[in-house]
Amino acid sequence: MKTFPLLKLALLSASAGLAFAVALGSTSGALAQTTAEQTAAQRAAYQPVFRLDGGDMTYAFGVNERGELQQLYWGERIGANDKIAPAKSAPEWASHDSSYTNTPQEYAGWGAGLYQEPALKVTFADGVRDLVLHYVTSTKPDESSVDVVLKDISRAVTVTLHYTIDPGTGVLARSATIVNNEPKPILIEQAAAAGYSLPRGEYTLNYLTGRWAGEWTLNSEPIRPGMKVLESRRGMSGFQSNPWFAIGKDDAGEEHGETWFGALAWSGSWRIAFDKDTLDKVRITGGFNPFDFGYPLKRGEQLETPIFYTGYSHQGYGGASRLLAKFTLAHVLPQAPNPKPRPVIYNSWEATEMNVSEAGQIALAEKAASLGIDRFVMDDGWFGKRKTDHAGLGDWYVDPDKFPHGLKPLIDKVHALKMDFGLWVEPEMVNPDSDLYRKHPEWVLNFPGRPRNEQRTQMVLNLARPDVRAYVFGFLDKLLSENDISFLKWDYNRSWSEPGWDQMPPDEQKKVYVEFIRNLYSILAELRQKHPGVEIESCSSGGGRVELGILRYTDEVWPSDNTDPLDRLTQQDGFTRAYPVQIMLSWVTDSPHWLNNRATSLTYRMLVSMEGSLGIGANLNNWTAEDFSTAKRLIAAYHGVQKTITQGDLYRLISPTNGSEFTATEMVAADKSQAVFFAYVHSTNEGRGFPVLQLKGLDPAATYTLKSIEGKTAPDTPTEASGAWWMNHGIDLMLRGDFQGAAFSLDKK
Ligand code: DGJ
User: Fold this and answer.
1) Is the peptide bond before 592 cis (omega within 30 degrees of 0)?
2) How far is CA 312 from CA 259, 589, 749, in A?
């Protein structure tokens, strides 16, 4: 976990003369051993309150009179000297809702009458399934974070809760380490990273759903009594739901109102439950998906959960996404805190599909270089017997029919053209028609004696197996060692089925849900360490594996195979609610589009892709001289303002959702020295002009010069005016027709 040295952690105490103060400052290792039972009297005398402040947020929790750890506050930052009273458990509600269930616990064990979503549920070797976690002690591993140790009231199961807050954005990282010190194994049936609570109120939940070619749909609905679950049971994070949410209070909107947000850093099966309880409080519990989960811990073993990040903004959903994007750039991505703007890439997939060859790729590379492209990426088809998607996955040698001299001539040519070289791989998969599968049929996820379901005629290699991990790391390491490759597009084209790990005893097989992902992360980390110049893209048939877990190891993601520019506007609107523009790769492809058969101009397609990390994926062999000149001019313009677009503060001025005829987005550099905005009309109806665009986030007192990247303003528009003018008077754009776009920059004088 990354740390934040400036954090101010206040450990307050309800009383002096602390019975447990002696434990403070111990090391976490020593704390895990602390099993002394607390008497009621000791607890009453010592109920610490913990408070974390960062950005505009304060998070506070404390120990109640029973010894449970309870949330006390999560919201807008409060005064530095404000006193937070010690925790007091909530009363019982009649005879059916226990005090234990009504109390908003930080990490509730399933037991003692808990009807809410538990953070942790275990079965002990003797069949006991009751777990009640009480505070034992706490420690400050460094200036920026606190670890709090809980232990079952009678058994030697401890949970260390890790908290770290980012002083800049207030984003809070929480996770848990569960340790079994019982003589016999325990079975963990459910383990969350963290639980959060919101007080009684009216809330709206925003979340993202999708499917292949239809990712990043924003959903918005009131949180009603009962449980709302977002999840993946697929062994991967998935398209269907993304592990992100934003909750608005009352009438919170794009730029106003209280907003709480969260994101789970896990690339396997996950779940976030939103539970409006009997007393109208909202509980948010997120972590491993408990469906088909079972993680045994022998004595001395531990389970580490993923990190569940959360934060708060009083500037609505726009404020929430700006904070999370800033945090991701500064603390999550592999190049944090200063990720380089992404190279503009050319990718050959839509031009050639698997029909790649040395001559064909070189012809495309020459054309790409003439546009000012920085990186040339060869996609699927270069290896094994990969003529179609029915064969070859797993056989990671260069196909001698397609590349008789290996990859070197192509890579050298790409370098001579002043681009670097990237290559597509799909390391976790195998086609049954492959040498690898013929040799190692036991390497795939499977239940012996049962059919092995194929999707895209492929199966999932069980990366949890040490031999599979060694094979995957080995071939990638060799590929990167023997070839001058700067970039891997790491694809992952199917969900799991039959998730058996038959190498293990039956009661250990479900560990596959955790160990597979841990090995994936460790391969990525080791490759990056051994080949520090190599960058990686996370692709999963588009946006099937995008979350803050994979983003610790990958520099960008492929949000969707759907590159139709109009669809992309809506997808980009959804995507940027949760993730930074920097990681959102966006290719310009051919028209009419293969998915919708919609015809659009190259300029329009270019502008839509320039709102992200730009790439070209069209068949350049079919481009006209005019196409080359348009793309070259816009790529040069993009390079000039790229940092502001991809790392600046994003304002969604007009969202394309809900049937809007228009879209407008603006990005403002952190120091407000530059802004870039894009505007689109989807289809002009009844002669309606584009709404006057009032910009946001500028320095009102500074003078900004307006420059067109593409498009025209009304004739009387000044070229120089104050930030206040651009934000209040606004800009009148000349934008009419079908699928029209414009882009401008504003530079501070
Ligand atoms: C799915 C990806 O999303 C595409 O961009 C392409 O790389 C294909 N896989 C290749 O099989």
Assistant:
1) yes
2) 6, 38, 34
Give start and end residues of each alpha helix (H) in 531-617.
565-578, 602-610
The residue with greater pLDDT, 3 or 226, is: 226
- Read off the pLDDT of residues 67-76 as tens digits, 9 standing for 90 and up: 999 999 999 9
Amino acid at 399: D
Q: What are phi and psi of 63, to 5 degrees?
A: -100, 130
Q: Tell which one of 211, 425, 491 to mutate to probe ligand 1, the residue whose CB is within 8 A of the most ligand atoms.
A: 491
- Residue 140's pLDDT is 84
* 738 catalytic residue (yes or no): no
Percent with pLDDT over 70 in the chain: 94
What b/e readout covers 232-267, taking b as 16+ CB neighbours within 10 angstroms? bbbbbbbbbbbbbbbbbbeebebeebbbbbbbbbbb
Q: Which of 380, 433, 561, 564 is catalytic?
A: 561
Establish whether residue 68 lines the binding site of ligand 1, counting it when its CB lies within 6 angstroms of any ligand atom: no
Other Cβ atoms less than 10 A from the Cβ of 126: the count is 8
Across the range 165-182, mean pLDDT stands at 98
Is the CB of 426 inside a 6 Å radius of any atom of ligand 1?
A: no
Residue 485 Cα, ligand 1 centroid: separation in angstroms?
19
CA of 450 to the centre of ligand 1 (A): 29
Q: What are the residues whose beta carbons fall under 8 Å from the beta carbon of 691, sequence distance 6 or more?
A: 654, 662
pLDDT of residue 1: 33
User: How does pLDDT run across 397-443, given as a tens digit for each residue?
Assistant: 999 999 999 999 999 999 999 999 999 999 999 999 999 999 999 99
Pocket lining: 587 vs ligand 1, CB cutoff 6 Å: no
Decide if 491 is catalytic. Answer: yes
Count of C-beta atoms within a 10 Å radius of residue 423: 21
Q: Which of 491, 567, 573, 649 is catalytic?
A: 491
- Please give the sequence-ordered ranges of beta strands (E in DSSP) within 622-686, or none if there are none: 649-654, 662-668, 674-683
The Cα-based distances of 707 to 50, 299, 704 in angstroms read 51, 67, 10
Domains of the chain (ranges; CATH) run 8-319 (2.70.98.60), 345-644 (3.20.20.70), 653-748 (2.60.40.1180)
